[in-house]
Every structure is written in structure tokens, then in C-alpha cells.
Amino acid sequence: MSLLTVSDLRVSYGGIEALKGISFSVEEGKIVTLIGANGAGKSTTLRTIAGLVKPASGKIEFEGKDITGHDAQKVVSGGIALVPEGRRVFDNLSVLENLRIGAYLRKDEAGIKSDIEHVYELFPRLKERHWQLAGTLSGGEQQMLAVGRAMMTRPKVMMMDEPSLGLAPLVVKDIFSIIKTLNESGMTILLIEQNANAALRCAHEGYVLETGRITMAGTCAELLNDQRVKGAYLGSASKK
Hints:
Order of helices and strands: EEEHEEHEHHHHEHEHEEHH
Number of helices: 10
Oligomer: single chain
Mean pLDDT: 91
């Protein structure tokens, strides 16, 4: 069943069309990835679904309901969380305070405490550093915190914007392992990544976005074996 459906979505910035009528769907329980070069429109897609950017036209449906143009708070409370590019943790607040901010729309204190413990089980390093200011964490730890903060909203879909950006290769491996673990626990994930090889090896289905248009779609196995994808996005990585 399609949990999230985007139909003919168009977004313009000051007369420049960033998205030129894209359509795709995210099935419940799947990891779906959008891959593409810088400036292809990947972040714009997530920001529009999240209610941070208003589309010029098109439709976004979540659980069968039209959420096109809803504000960000309504989108979050409805069950869609965004882990933003660059992590965007609150540097001057502790790890625990950052997690609590993720639950700002909730009133169930017992549930919030239980979810914090769940985040700590997934990320033991965050538990060890729960008192530490987020700005003093490593890049990988900040990414874990950004994911943990999104989990605190109890989302049905987690959207992740370039989670591996700027991280060391070993940490990137950890992050993709965490994405798989989240998915195995029932989380539906929409992932955008420049690291196309890692994204396609982690996800179930993929879409290739080029200058605001979807040019290819298929299972990740199909895209990994497609010569055009290999040539444009995988380079030497596809030989490994």
C-alpha cells in the first residue's frame, strides 16, 4: 500500500522551476531513495513534502489524504518527520534536551520517557553523552541525534536528507546500518543521497532525479545494474 504519493509536483523559486512535475510513491514498510546530482531537486522535494516550501502545483497525499500545502507543524503531527541536511541539532542544548524538542507536540510524558530510552538503545553513544552539549559531538554522533530527535515525533514516514554528507566512511557504514535497523522495526523511509551506491544498496526502490525531473525508476537491484546509472552515479563504486 502506498503511504505517501507525490503527483505532478512543481516548485518554483523566483521564476526558476526546481521541480518540473515529478511523481513517485513510497510504499508502507519500504526504504525508497531519490538519487541525483547536486541541484537536481532532491532537497526541494523533501522540503515541499515537509511543508517548508509551498508547491506551485501538484498533489501530495499521505495515508490517502491530501496534505498539499499543509504547514510544517501539521505535517509533523500527521506522521512525517524530516532529518534535515547538515543535521541541524541545537548546539547549545544537551543531547537529552535535543531529544525532548523532538517531542514538543506531545503531552504523554510516560511515552516520551519510553521513546528516549528506545533512542538510547539504538544509539548507546547518545546515552553515554546525554548531558553533553550537542555542538561538541562528532559529526556522526550529531547525525544519530538528528535521527533520534525525528524518532521522538513517532513518525510513520521518516525523510532523510543526505544523512551521510561530510561523514567518514566508517561512520557512513554505521548510519546506513541504522537506517536498515529502523526500517526492520517497521519505519517507512524516504532517503535522499548523493552517495548513490550506498543508498541503492540500502533501499528497496529508487528514483533518479535530474534537473527537476524523474528520469528513471525501478527496484534498487535494477538501478544498480543499469548502465546509465552506473556511468552517471556509481563510477568505480559499482565495480566493488
